[in-house]
Amino acid sequence: MTVRTGVIGVGVMGAEHARLLSEAISQSELEAVFDVDSARAAAVAANSGARVFDDPMVLIKDDRVDAVLIASSDQTHEDFVLAAIAAGKPVLCEKPLAPTVEGCTRIMRAEAEAGTRLVSVGFMRRHDPGYVEMKRALESDQLGRPLLVHCTHRNASVAPGHPTSMLISGSAVHEIDIVRWLLDEELAAVTVYTPRSAAAAVGTQDPLMLILESVSGVLIDVEVFVNAAYGYDVRCELVADRGTILLDSPAATVIRSSGSAARTVPADWRPRFAEAYRRELQDWVFGIAAGDPARSASSWDGYVATEVAQVSIRALETGQRQEFSLMEKPSLYR
Ligand code: ISE
Fold it and tell me: What is the Å distance from ligand 1's center to 211 Cα?
């Protein structure tokens, strides 16, 4: 079976997903695209032969669209995900599933009413070979129980006035998801620290330091620094009873010259997570073809990420440690 996908939103990430679906993914065709900027949609379609739609809701219902990928602006996600569920179609939604907890809850309710899981959330790090290897090492019991996780998340720069809350809801949300997935447990509480702000950070408190506590007592520190200047850098070190595992920033080459050894650092997340995006889409398409359309991050994971991010923003704003109180996990996701 070939899975024909319609992509809604072909900005930076959506255009990359569209390219992968049309060129790099097996059993996949890019069938349709929509973007609020019709010239952008036409440019993507011209390279792939996809049809351009001027109404995303018509795209979702179209008979030749088997599955929907949503990479439009955050506040539009909920309506498109709900429409895909109503049409009975698998849908992969970029994070956040919805910017509000209420929106995520409505999506979980719609999926429960449909009686089947159709929604995947684009937490691509779950498909990154490095994180997959970390999880495998933890599960093998070679290292014993996890005790601490040290996370670093740096972007080269953001636009002036980037809201400080976005350091949590747009960036640290990846760590929130990946540590839940690695540790296979929920988070219990958060404290957010605000060190001196970087000279390059205009109108933004940057960096932030989050200290998350897991239910079983693992402590996780997350440095989020979005004006790090030198490039994009994501690292993670897990400390366990009998050893540690370090996910370093990977580099294809090291240049040794003039008395130094230099590794290149990517400019942003697209080269760093290129393989993760490819594997995420391939696994999604193979899952749909095999009748198992939602085997990655679920609506439940999307809900938890939004809930934890929102409460962490409250911790930032109040300067107080905050505890998470998640709703009971619906049976569809157990
Ligand atoms: C961006 O929106 C992403 O999702 C990237 O993966 C993340 O690393 C970056 O910090 C965000 O701004």
Answer: 19
